[in-house]
Amino acid sequence: MFKRKKLLPEVPIYIMMGGVGENFGGVTSVALHRSSVFAELDDRPIGFLTTSANHAADPSGRARELKAEGRLAENVYIRNAWNDLASMPDDDLSALSSGVEDPESEVPNLLPYEDEAEAVRTNDEGKILQVDRFRADGSRFISDRRDARIPGVLGGRLVTAFRRDGSVAQQWTGTRFVYHAWLDWLTQGETSIFIVDSANVAVPMIEYRRSHAVVVHPLHTGHTVGSEPPGFTLSKSTYPKYSKLDSFDLVTALTESHASELRAEGIASDNLVSLSNMSASEPVKKIEPRRRTSGVMLARLADQKRIDHAIEAVGLANRESLDPITLDIYGEGELRPALESQISELNLDDHVRLKGYAPSAREKFGEASFSVLSSLYEGQGLVLLESMANGCIPISYDIRYGPSDVITHGVDGFLVPDGDVGQLAATIQRVALMDSAELMKMRKAAVKRSRAFLPRSITKLWGEVLKEALEAKQPVRTVRGTVEVVTCALKDESVEVRVDFKGNGSWPDWAKLVWTQRNGTGYGRVPARVHQDDGAYQISATLPLATFAPLENGTIDFWIDVKVEGNPLRMRIKKAGDRLPVREGRFELYATKHKSLSLRVINAGTV
């Protein structure tokens, strides 16, 4: 009997999330499904790692619950950082990688144990200043101070781990260092892959650079503000990671359109690939009959999903329909009261139903005629794949990423101009009025299209890119360097810069000129040329001033990014020189008081 060839690299693979609550959204669903598919197709254990203290109590019990619901494969286990710290032997706790060179032997103001898993201290405004966590036997294992600089004043963090006898085992100046120490303990230097799905967990993982660890970050959402066009401002929530994507060994974008934008803007470099989500539903072999006017929607009840648009559209569609058009919405969230009011005000109680969270909600795609995606933005829209796999015709706003990469308009689904509620209503009505033959043709086309996203096909692609990432991994070392201005000018409506680069490494793999908006989230990069002049490394780049046209006023700071033997480094451009400032129209290139290179953008009304 032949042994089936493994699809994935034969090293430990871990999926990382903050936690898995009772009600969870699309990213958690994707992570759970992928971990299960990996485990089942390769017949191997997969670790699902969580970092939230709120999910520390019983990760094994949570895994059993998810398996009972059919959400997690038997070969997937869940571990939590804080749960492991609580159960870790004292010797292991003491041997964790240190965050503080000389840990304090005595920690003041510890909170008393009162038969609870944690004790909390807050200030007068209710903000948390300290959390102490306890083992089942009552011994303290963590004291997390958030007022480490001045007692009683929020600021400065010190996390202390304790042995069972109450003595200090280790200290760190932030939870990210706790997570790093935990992962070092977990892997013991063994080559491992970490797929960090959570955006919140990705930020502390930016600094987890180890020679034995390949850190992968799938991008589940776009990088700019809402549905704004690309090219200037990152969203506040995505700025910390999108401005440091080079620190990951591999970054995956769900669609080629998103990947292309990231490359065009210089945000991503040679570590970016396009890799789609996989469908969580097997394509149906037989398309069951269904009422053509029945719709379904799976979404969190949150602003991003614009569920109010879908509700309004169903109301408009029903004005012209002889048969009642219905929409069942599965999901929970903070907008439930507002959406209930909207349904009532529009007299749609018989047409729109908020069904709440249901683990089996995706099965409803097999019963509904159409699905609705009205989001402001999505990474790809997993619900589109699940809808199509069940012969449920997707009706989606044509937002920037996802829908147009999946749906062929009028063939296997419908694309509606973004935000156009009237057109959304008209398209829902169109499906409700289509004849049976035309509907069946579209349903079959949708099922056929979904086969491109089958788990085995996508897992095979994952295996290929992970193997390439392992092969490309270079030893991690600290790269140091400086860049100093040789020439800088405003010329031909561009910023032209040439700098000397001095560092402790070899010739850079590549270089980019970086700009960041001071007191804002504007960010971008352009390719730079590395060359030698009189034996010295020099880096040259040109940046169009039109890049900053969206900015009414403000300050732009300039940096140089390089990658040296696989290790990234960002350096502020120094020694801007005495020839500055120089000005062209609204733009003034100048040296800061520390002689760093910056650009001042002046309000057009004051020019």
Automatic annotation (TrEMBL):
<feature type="domain" description="Glycosyl transferase family 1">
    <location>
        <begin position="296"/>
        <end position="447"/>
    </location>
</feature>
<protein>
    <submittedName>
        <fullName>Glycosyltransferase</fullName>
        <ecNumber>2.4.-.-</ecNumber>
    </submittedName>
</protein>
<dbReference type="Pfam" id="PF00534">
    <property type="entry name" value="Glycos_transf_1"/>
</dbReference>
<keyword id="KW-0808">Transferase</keyword>
<dbReference type="GO" id="GO:0016757">
    <property type="term" value="F:glycosyltransferase activity"/>
</dbReference>
<keyword id="KW-0328">Glycosyltransferase</keyword>
<dbReference type="InterPro" id="IPR001296">
    <property type="entry name" value="Glyco_trans_1"/>
</dbReference>
